[in-house]
UniProtKB/TrEMBL annotation, chain A:
Organism for this UniProt entry: Sphingomonas liriopis
Example of a GO MF term: phosphate transmembrane transporter activity
Keyword annotations: ATP-binding, Nucleotide-binding, Phosphate transport, Transport
UniProt gene name: pstB
Domain ABC transporter: 5-247
Gene3D superfamilies: P-loop containing nucleotide triphosphate hydrolases
Protein name: Phosphate ABC transporter ATP-binding protein PstB
GO cellular component annotations of the record: membrane
Any single Pfam family the record assigns to this protein: ABC_tran
GO biological process: one example: phosphate ion transmembrane transport
InterPro entries listed in its UniProt record: AAA+_ATPase (IPR003593), ABC_transporter-like_ATP-bd (IPR003439), ABC_transporter-like_CS (IPR017871), P-loop_NTPase (IPR027417), PstB-like (IPR005670)
From TrEMBL, chain B:
Biological process per Gene Ontology, one example term: phosphate ion transmembrane transport
Species, as recorded: Sphingomonas liriopis
Coarse class of the protein's main subcellular location: membrane
Record field: transmembrane: 31-53, 204-225, 245-267, 273-295, 316-338, 391-410
Segments forming domain ABC transmembrane type-1: 200-407
Domain of life: Bacteria
PANTHER family (alphabetical): PHOSPHATE TRANSPORT SYSTEM PERMEASE PROTEIN PSTA (PTHR43470:SF5), PHOSPHATE TRANSPORT SYSTEM PERMEASE PROTEIN PSTA-RELATED (PTHR43470)
Bilayer topology: Multi-pass membrane protein
Keyword tags: Cell membrane, Membrane, Transmembrane, Transmembrane helix, Transport
Protein name: Phosphate transport system permease protein PstA
Record-linked NCBIfam families: 3a0107s02c (TIGR00974)
One Pfam entry name: DUF3333
TrEMBL record, chain C:
GO cellular component: a single term: plasma membrane
Entry membrane topology: Multi-pass membrane protein
Entry protein name: Phosphate transport system permease protein
InterPro entries linked to this entry: MetI-like, MetI-like_sf, Phosphate_PstC, PstC_N
Length: 252, 418, 458
């Protein structure tokens, strides 16, 4: 099976500082892939190269190639806007727009012209909120501000917003780090349900979470990809000493 | 070997004295600070109070009862003519002014006409327009008095006028009332006839040009610098320019307007168009700086969120950042406009100090603005202008107060704290 | 058609293009094709912009050149042979004829104007016709060309956004243009001035009386030293003698002693002092303060106490500057780390000792920077000195005597019926240049000081 995203020899520099050092990795279509590693190891940086969110940092420079369905996303002809619609992202801190819940979800479809008739848009918003497991909680107050929701609900709203533009890949950058355990459980449950429909890459510093939600795990350290394999193997039988030290809590 | 130090005796009288002295110094320092605050506020209060004190009488006028028999005056005018449009022209042409002077002479002796304001016949004219039956009956109308009499009636005038006022008051023919003309007419040579509407309209036209240029340009420049500008020498140059322009003395902008708009482009002198252009250049940096601060305050997470669903950089800014920053930008704009409205010096440079007796109706008509009108009146010798100047200042301060109130309202109503 | 009408029609055409392109792009939408590079509305804007911008540029250029073309055409007519040679009369006849032709006036002072008016009207009509035709043609052609590019594969959004970015860039370049305009116009006029008056005479001469300029030696009466001194004396000495103690002590009291509630309403009250227009201060200074100062001077036995004294103008200017000094001092004091203050208080220092020995020395660079900014504001202030200071330049350090300033002289020199090119008016630009350079230098120094200070505690 050909991978959904295939990164080859990717290095990222911030000015003169190298943040990612020759990383090659494949993201499969129906798996959840977890990036783990100590803070500052570059896992979030690498995640952000996958939909070119690093472009917003002026000093960032990327070398190597990243192929989405065999197409180089850093090629000059690539439309970044379309790329980000295909590769969506959920951030560490929930960041709903300061608009109504409905407008939060409808914004993406509107700018991409995915639904023209009001009824289509309504249906799309409902579908997205349902898939994000938020519909029953908010269906009576779609006009309330998105920022008025609780933290966990806000994060699910952000997931609904990402789903609404019908992406192929969803990147999640420590999506639960700002949430309480109950909200975290709901998000993890959601990830399970979304698996298969979307390729999912999740960055987490919580190894239990990686073990619970992912099928594959990649361990990053100091900008390098130390080990990459099936989640079960990584956690029970790591090949590298550095991985073992991290997993057993020697550093982190 | 030094001797081991003795422990300080904190109960010694010397220590107590010293502590008392230190506390006294503390109290003195604190009182000095309090005095500075109160004196500063006192200056403001004194300034405002003295303007109010001198200015309120400027909104009022002294009137004298004038018995007039229009029918006997044989005006060449028919009741039909004083209705509708051509009325002013018809009455002026019919010799009403002379008729009013004759009536004054009849009522108050040979120098009776000198008691009346130059604008007295206008009051009679307006009365006839309101009530055409006056054309064929006798009536007693209250008309404005001459400036010297007005001053003497309100404050201390010259002895001559004071004596006349005393005589007239004994006859019970003087009365006072709100001056209708002050808020509706333009500049004049006679202080009893002046009004600020001309200057106010000039200010409005000038401000319209200023806001029409400075607001869009300022907001777009702020968006560019804060959201898109690459870090390079050009951007640095733009930033340095804007920060310096905000600190350049306003009179320099007047010199620029004189040399460029009048000297090079030959735009009309004294026009609200040129005044507005000059003030726009002065106000734009203020709006850019306020706009950048407001844009900076929009959290980056909003931009990330929009980018991540595939919004283009232009969509991110115009769909999300600008609407969120708008209240802050508007607050800054209103404050910049208030400054421009009170500005005098640059407008003197481009000739907006002319005597303008008709309110401007187009952007290229000669005009003056409120602060310049204040400046012009303050230079007048006639004592009647003192209260008019202060009254115009009251109007200016009320407009500025309203604008600042609006800015505060915007800030409190729409500001989001992140 | 008048220019305004053409602009309206062009806007109408652009609107039609916008609608047409939108409708056409809407038909690209096929079920199953999920993603587009642009929305129909982007195609609409693309065609609209293409139909709008070229005619508007043409009209802008045309409105600058057309009057000259029309006048040339009129002069070429036989009736114009009777025109006097180029000069004021000829220009006034032509402008009268233009006003007659446009229907802006009904009577003419010159008879010739009336005969030329029909020629004017004809030429105007012909050129207006050309302008209308070209503008409408441009709108239609450019709009149609743009419309042919409306295809699914065409990235309309990218094109439209490029225009938006250009607009943003152009807006920010206005700031540079303004700066360049100021520097260029001041330099150009000053260069002409220094062509008449030696720069040394201007900068170092001690005699200033522009009312009588001797044609043989204009520099003798245009020595600006008394103005520089007067400006410094009023703005940097007297005004600061009022503003610094009041501003600084107010800031200290409000930040260190006052109850937060008091501070909340007292600070805006003080800031209102800065919001009062300068013309009001000028009037206040001239009408109320100046006579009082003169009486004080006479009471103190100063014989030449003037009613246009430096003290009156400077003191009122100082009052105006109080909130400026106080808010700069406020910022600097707030930037001093609380740990410094706590350290001092913990040793048993009283609050005033802490303020004087610890907080103020630590905040000093920021305060000094703020004072420099205030000085720059004061010496550029115009209306107060125009209304309350004297027009006579004297070199004196007596605050009760009359003194003049650079800004007052700029206003005086440019008022009245002087020729634009005379040494007198050009001197105003030389003074303006000096003022610009000095305030700029003060601002740069002050901002550098403040910035260093901020960095020290960050």
């Amino acid at each position: 099976m050909t991978p959904k995203i295939s990164a080859r020899d990717v290095s990222v520099f911030y000015g003169a500082k190298q943040a990612i050092d020759h990383v090659s990795i494949d993201v499969d279509q129906d798996n959840v892939l977890a990036f783990i590693g100590p803070s500052g190891c570059g896992k979030s940086t690498f995640l952000r190269t996958l939909n070119r969110m690093n472009d917003t940092v002026a000093s960032a420079r990327v070398s190597g190639e990243i192929l989405l369905d065999g197409e180089d996303i850093y090629a000059s002809g690539m439309d970044v806007v379309q790329l980000r619609a295909r590769v969506g992202m959920v951030f560490q801190k929930p960041n709903p727009f300061p608009k109504s819940i409905y407008e939060n979800v409808a914004y993406g479809p509107r700018i991409h012209g995915l639904a023209t008739a009001r009824a289509d848009l309504d249906a799309l918003v409902e579908q997205s909120l349902r898939r994000a497991g938020l519909w029953d909680e908010v269906k009576d107050r779609l006009t309330d501000s998105g920022t008025a929701l609780s933290g966990g609900q806000q994060q699910r709203l952000c997931i609904a917003r990402a789903i609404a533009v019908d992406p192929e890949v969803i990147l999640m950058d420590e999506p639960c780090s700002a949430l309480d355990p109950i909200a975290t459980a709901k998000i993890e449950e959601l990830i399970h349900e979304l698996k298969g429909r979307y390729a999912i890459v999740i960055v987490t510093h919580n190894m239990q979470q990686a073990a619970r939600v992912s099928q594959q795990t990649a361990f990053f350290h100091l900008g390098q990809l130390v080990e990459f394999g099936r989640t079960g193997d990584i956690f029970t039988n790591p090949r590298e000493e550095r991985t073992r030290d991290y997993i057993t809590g020697r550093y982190g | 070997m030094t001797e081991p130090r003795q422990p300080t005796d904190w109960t010694a009288a010397e220590v107590h004295r010293r502590t008392r002295r230190r506390y006294a110094a503390e109290r003195r320092f604190r009182l000095t600070g309090l005095a500075a605050v109160w004196l500063s506020a006192g200056f403001l209060a004194f300034l405002l109070a003295s303007m109010l004190w001198q200015g309120t009488s400027g909104f009022r006028e002294t009137r004298i009862a004038l018995p007039i028999d229009v029918a006997q005056a044989n005006l060449a005018v028919t009741p039909a003519q004083v209705k509708g449009r051509g009325a002013d022209l018809a009455l002026a042409g019919a010799g009403l002014e002379a008729a009013v002077d004759r009536a004054a002479t009849r009522a108050y002796g040979s120098n009776g006409a000198a008691l009346l304001s130059d604008g007295a016949w206008l009051a009679v004219r307006d009365a006839i327009k309101r009530d055409p039956t006056l054309l064929d009956r006798r009536a007693t109308l209250a008309v404005p008095v001459a400036s010297a009499i007005d001053v003497a009636a309100k404050h201390d005038g010259n002895p001559d006028a004071e004596a006349q006022v005393a005589r007239l008051q004994a006859r019970g023919v003087l009365s006072t009332g709100w001056s209708r003309g002050f808020l509706t007419t333009a500049d004049a040579t006679d202080p009893t006839r002046v009004g600020i509407w001309g200057a106010l309209k000039g200010s409005l036209l000038t401000m319209a040009v200023t806001i029409g240029l400075a607001f869009p340009i300022g907001v777009l420049a702020a968006l560019y610098l804060e959201e898109y500008a690459p870090r390079n020498r050009w951007t640095d140059l733009i930033e340095v320019s804007i920060n310096n322009l905000a600190a350049v003395p306003s009179i320099i902008f007047g010199l620029l307007g004189l040399a460029v708009f009048l000297g090079t482009f030959h735009l009309p002198r004294s026009a609200p168009l040129v005044g507005g252009l000059t003030l726009a250049l002065m106000t734009m940096p203020v709006i850019v700086i306020a706009g950048r601060n407001a844009i900076k305050a929009v959290p980056p997470s909003v931009r990330d969120a929009a980018l991540a669903v595939g919004a283009s950089p232009v969509q991110v800014v115009f769909d999300h950042v600008l609407p969120l920053a708008l209240p802050g930008i508007l607050t800054g704009t209103i404050i910049g406009m208030a400054r421009a409205l009170g500005e005098t010096a640059p407008l003197l440079m481009i000739g907006m100090r002319a005597f303008i007796a008709a309110p401007p109706s187009r952007l290229t008509d000669p005009a003056t603005v409120l602060p310049v009108q204040i400046f012009l009146w303050s230079d007048e010798v006639d004592r009647g202008f003192v209260e008019k100047t202060s009254a115009a200042i009251i109007v200016l301060l009320v407009v500025l107060l309203a604008m600042n109130g609006l800015a505060i309202y915007f800030r409190n109503r729409f500001e989001t704290r992140w | 058609m008048s220019n305004l009408a053409i602009v309206f029609v062009v806007f109408g055409l652009a609107l039609i293009g916008w609608l047409a392109a939108r409708m056409r792009a809407a038909t690209f939408r096929k079920p199953g094709v999920a993603r587009f590079t642009a929305l129909p509305v982007h195609y609409g804007y693309f065609v609209g912009i293409c139909a709008l911008v070229p005619p508007l540029i043409f009209l802008a250029v045309w409105s600058l050149t057309a009057p000259a073309l029309v006048t040339d055409a009129v002069i070429a007519t036989p009736a114009a042979a009777a025109l006097p040679p180029p000069g004021f009369e000829r220009a006034s006849i032509l402008s009268e004829a233009r006003a007659l032709a446009a229907g802006r006036s009904h009577g003419a002072f010159h008879d010739l104007s009336a005969t030329l008016a029909p020629a004017y009207a004809a030429a105007q009509a012909r050129y207006d016709g050309i302008a209308t035709a070209v503008a409408l043609l441009l709108a239609c052609v450019c709009g149609a060309l743009a419309f042919t590019r409306v295809r699914p594969a065409f990235a309309a959004r990218t094109q439209v956004e490029r225009v938006v970015m250009l607009l943003l860039l152009a807006a920010s370049l206005i700031a540079i243009l303004t700066t360049v305009g100021i520097v260029a116009s001041l330099l150009y006029e000053s260069a002409r001035f220094f062509g008449i008056v030696p720069i040394g005479d201007f900068l170092f001469g001690t005699h200033w009386s522009p009312q009588v300029i001797s044609p043989s030696d204009p520099g003798a009466s245009l020595g600006a030293v008394p103005l520089f001194w007067g400006t410094f004396f009023i703005g940097a000495v007297i005004a600061m003698a009022v503003a610094i103690p009041f501003g600084l002590m107010s800031a200290i009291y409000l930040t260190q002693y006052a109850h937060p509630a008091t501070r909340r309403w007292m600070k805006p009250v003080l800031e209102m002092l800065a919001g009062v227009p300068t013309v009001v201060y000028g009037y206040f200074a001239a009408l109320t303060v100046a006579p009082a100062v003169r009486q004080l001077g006479v009471a103190l036995g100063i014989a030449n106490a003037s009613s246009e004294s430096a003290l009156a103008a400077g003191a009122v200017m100082g009052i105006m500057i109080i909130p400026f000094v106080s808010s700069m001092a406020d910022d600097s004091i707030a930037a001093v780390p609380a740990s410094m203050r706590d350290g001092s208080l913990a040793m048993g220092a009283t609050q005033s000792e802490t303020i004087r020995r610890v907080i103020l020395p630590a905040a000093l660079p920021g305060v000094v920077g703020g004072i420099l900014l205030a000085v720059s504001r004061a010496i550029g202030e115009t209306m107060i000195v125009v209304m309350a200071a004297s027009g006579v330049a004297t070199l004196t350090a007596n605050p009760f005597a009359s003194t003049t300033t650079v800004t007052k002289q700029i206003v005086d020199l440019l008022t009245g019926e002087a020729e634009f090119d005379s040494a007198k008016t050009l001197a105003a630009f030389a003074l303006g240049l000096t003022l610009f350079v000095i305030t700029l230098a003060l601002n740069i120094v002050a901002l550098t000081v403040v910035k260093r200070y901020r960095e020290a505690y960050d």
